[in-house]
Amino acid sequence: MKINIGDMMRNRAYLSPDLEAFVGEGYRYTFREANLMVNQMANYMKSLPVYPGDRIAILCKNNYQFLIAMLAAAKIGAITVPLNWRLHPSELVYILNDCGAVLLLYDAGFSEAAEAVRTQTKLRYLIRSGGTGQDIEFNQALAGQPADEPGLVAGDDDVAVIMYTSGTTGKPKGAMLTHKNLFFVTAGHCHTINWKYRDRFLSVAPLFHIGGLAPMITNIHCGTTCVFMPDFDPVKTWQTVVEEKITHMMTVPVMLLAMLRVPGIAEMDLSSLEHIVCGGSIVPEIIFTEYKKYNIEVENVLGVTEYAGALTFWTHDMGWDKRTSVGKAVFHGEIKIVDPETRSELPPGQIGEIAVAGPQLFKGYWNNPEATQKVVADGWYYTGDLGMKDEDGFIYVVDRLKDMIISGGENIYPAEVEAVIARVPGVVEVGVVGKPDVKWGEVPVAFVVKAPEAEITEADIIKACTDNLARFKCVKEVIFTGPLPRNGVGKLLKDQLRQRLAG
Fold first, then answer.
1. What is the DSSP string of 251-275?
2. 402 pLDDT more than 80
3. Which residues have CB under 8 Å from 92's CB, separation 6+?
4. pLDDT tens figures, 235-261
5. Can you say whether residue 468 is alpha, beta or left, with left for phi > 0 and alpha for psi between -120 and 50 degrees?
6. 75 to each of 72, 165, 208, how far by Cα in Å?
7. Residue from 467, 415, 414 nearest 443 by CA
8. What is the pLDDT of residues 362-382, one digit of tens each?
């Protein structure tokens, strides 16, 4: 029998039919009810028809409709493509065309974006979640559909999800995650950290990120209730923790810092909240120490889309003195530190490139074998991250991709931003680097060389970004300068630009 992430819901509904599966504003569904909806959506998709191997895209915030559609697609052998709702419509068009999506499920709040992509893509069917409009509404699609199991046609090494991540060339790449990848990631979660039956998980990290999506499969695997929060709000987060007796959640540092600023935390009943997983960027010391005062253990995680989720976890029982590490490889996972040039393994204590292996390793990039071959060899994925392994096997991250900017947990690839700015008339050269920021960790800053006669302003550069990129990718500062520093073969020396900012 093949592993299928949709069939995992059937299994959980059989074992725990009356246990709450999905909770959100105005709804509470048991695993039995959720599985019946999954089957109805699967049968609706088949009736359109959506065929095995077809791609369905989802433009939704954290809600049960997202999971119903993804699991339904899995049951009929279709592939889910989560879309970052923070992207500009032109960026969504590229992804939809690259993957060839035939169906789009979107929240009514994103109707404008759905309209913008409707005629510029190969989409044949659109489903609206909530609101009013020309497309069939989610509940209408379910109505009248049989709730019997549709019959599995895919699993194991078949692709279940394509998750797009921006590449250093500026064009997003679709990481193909198989049913088996996602199954073993859940095993890595629940066999490495305390994730168990009847836990209550708060889904606040966006589902278009692997750190938000992978826990959804783990919740089904473990029999954990998922409470959805579509928009992060620090006050509302604490209220939900108390009201829903949340046991754990997945976050990024900027969220936990904002939550610490909420007054009256000490008076709240937080006894249910056992631990919080935090990653996406370096976790400041204050987060570990301040949450410990409330008897809440913050655990460090290192995750990668191409690994279908978590690579490592640090937990308190691994030793408080190791909290600056990202912990050890998850169950079923392997990590080594290699020389970036020769890819030969380095001894403990030496800094090199982090390479990972295991059944979680992705199948490759969608329609991009060249990009796959650059990072995968002999069953190992070479992350491009620099790190070190100590004598006890703990992993320390030194640099999260040399040029990548991590702002509020979001990955920003400078080449993508530079490509937009370079199109502004009068721009001769541009280099984008990250500037340290207390709130966001880093923010993007552009060094721009303009032609002598050009009358470009900072506002012109920022407008070019906001017109073409998601807001979090837009530069926050523009520095007009002379020729940018380059080496003998013309490569831009971004270290020198970062030193200028530091200076």
1. E-HHHHHHHHTSTTGGGS--TT--E
2. no
3. 59, 83, 113, 116, 117
4. 999 999 999 999 999 998 888 989 999
5. alpha
6. 5, 25, 20
7. 414
8. 999 999 999 999 999 999 999
Structural domain count, the chain: 2
In-domain check, residue 182: yes
478 plus 427 within the same structural domain? yes
Give me the amino acid identity at 6: G
How large is the average pLDDT for residues 266-273?
96
Q: Are residues 302 and 414 both part of a single domain? A: no
Its pTM stands at 0.85
- Can you tell me the distance from the alpha carbon of 315 to that of 395, in angstroms, rounded to the nearest whole number? 13
What sign for the dihedral angle of Cα 9, 15, 21, 27? positive
Going from the C-alpha of 488 to that of each of 47, 119, 216, 493, the distances in angstroms are: 60, 46, 49, 10
Phi, psi (rounded to 5 degrees) for 236: -65, -35
The rounded distance, in Å, linking the Cα atoms of 112 and 398 is: 41
Contact partners, residue 324, CB within 8 Å, separation at least 6: 285, 396
DSSP state of 315: -
Asked whether residue 328 falls in the same domain as residue 240, the answer is yes
Q: Taking each helix axis as running N to C, give the angle between helix 210-222 and helix 5-15, from 0 to 180 degrees, rounded to the nearest 10.
A: 40
CA nearest to 84, candidates 117, 65, 119, 57: 57
Backbone angles phi, psi at 162, to 5 degrees: -115, 115
- Give the CA count within 13 Å in the CB-facing half-sphere of 484: 23
275-311 burial, b for 16+ CB within 10 Å, e for fewer? bbbbbbbebeeebbebbeeeebbbbbbbbbbbbbbbb
Q: How far is CA 157 from CA 145, 152, 160, 360, in A?
A: 29, 14, 9, 11
- CATH number of the domain at 76, please: 3.40.50.12780
One domain for residues 268 and 335:
yes
Domain harbouring 455, CATH code: 3.30.300.30
Residue 487: predicted pLDDT: 56
363 plus 411 within the same structural domain:
no
> Smallest Cα–Cα separation from 484: which of 404, 416, 427, 435?
427
Query: In this structure, what token pair is assigned to residue 429?
Result: 């050269």
Identify the H or E element spanning 221.
helix 210-222
Same domain, 440 and 331: no
CA distance 413 to 406: 9
Q: Give the whole-angstrom CA distance, residue 386 versus residue 108.
A: 42
Q: Is residue 184 part of a domain?
A: yes
How many CB atoms sit inside 10 A of residue 157's CB? 12
Name the residue range of residue 464's domain. 405-502
